[in-house]
């Protein structure tokens, strides 16, 4: 899924020669691997959640979101949960996803799923997306439309639709129920409330995405003539401009390698970051020791990051540091101490010396780069995470 909350350290895991590997979903047995289970974790037999409604739908709530690498981020899941919580027994929740989506729509509260994989989040096609949303609204006639109020496409799409359709809209919504919405005004000193508008743009963390029920999760084959829309488009996408990861602010970096007290050879660490095309972060201890500048510090007293991949070398994981990486999607820890706090947060923990691991990765990356005839920065953060977690 898009961003993970702090992971339960008691979930099933396996111990391998490479270190501690945690399995988020279920228990995976591996030949020749010693398996440890938290008491009752694999055999709790928790009853399945009930369907929110089995009635004949008379109304529709439409949720429009963008997927990221096949999943919905936390803000998108909160928006879907808001619609599911507002819906009554005669209302179905239709989820319209722009981009590839491979998640469980029913578990997230959707009764119907409409996927538009032709819309990649990296592609700028605002008019095409507006036309697709308008076509879906015409087909389903929803009473209300919900979108996350973010800066990555959904907020812009919601405002464009409200303007084009002359629809009532509420933005930055921080409070919602079946009767009203509310948003902060006057520099967050007061709340402004109104009845539920046609378009609701939900602020982050306004709704708990964990639901006590599931939706029907029916997948709908729905065709949108994107080619015809593209031919009429007046906006031309110039693509993504690649820049050096070192120039990115840590808050914007998608791939971060971070050094702690266990990293002694800083030049080797920086070479690895350049090879991987990753931004550089550091723990407070490493910054206090003068190895890195203060703007590289990650944690409660530094930067809070939301990277897809975060690799921590030689970082024990003080609570302040863990607070800074709580929204990272995949965390990989390299540490000699299997009981270090970072291991409880990490998706994958490699029990090894950080410096030796950095040297080995530099050597392996150099050999792979030579074999492929490519330069630095050819690694993909998602590929790195998926390969490591496989």
Topology:
Layout: E1 13-16, E2 19-22, E3 34-36, E4 59-66, H1 74-86, E5 91-98, E6 112-116, H2 126-140, E7 144-148, H3 154-165, E8 169-176, E9 180-185, E10 190-195, E11 199-202, E12 218-220, H4 226-232, E13 255-259, H5 266-276, E14 279-282, H6 284-288, E15 309-313, H7 319-324, E16 330-335, H8 341-345, E17 348-351, H9 354-372, H10 381-389
Parallel strand pairs: 4-5, 4-7, 5-6, 6-12, 7-11, 8-11, 13-14, 13-15, 15-16, 16-17
Antiparallel strand pairs: 1-2, 1-3, 2-17, 8-9, 9-10
Helix pairs in contact: 2-3, 5-9
Q: Give the low-pLDDT segments.
A: 1-44
The helix fraction, in percent, is: 25-40%
CATH class of the largest domain: Alpha Beta
Mean pLDDT score: 82
Identify the strand order in the major beta sheet.
10-9-8-11-7-4-5-6-12
* Strand residue content: 15-25%
Report the order of strands and helices: EEEEHEEHEHEEEEEHEHEHEHEHEHH
Note the total helix count.
Answer: 10
For this structure, the CATH topology of the largest domain is Rossmann fold
Strand tally, please?
17
Gross morphology: elongated
- Please tell me the total number of domains: 2
Structural class: alpha/beta
Under the CATH scheme, which architecture of the largest domain would be assigned? 3-Layer(aba) Sandwich
Task: Let me know the CATH homologous superfamily of the largest domain.
Answer: HUPs
Q: For the terminal residues, how far apart are their CA atoms?
A: 15 Å
Major pleated sheet = 9 strands, mixed
What is the C-alpha radius of gyration, as a whole number of Å?
Answer: 23 Å
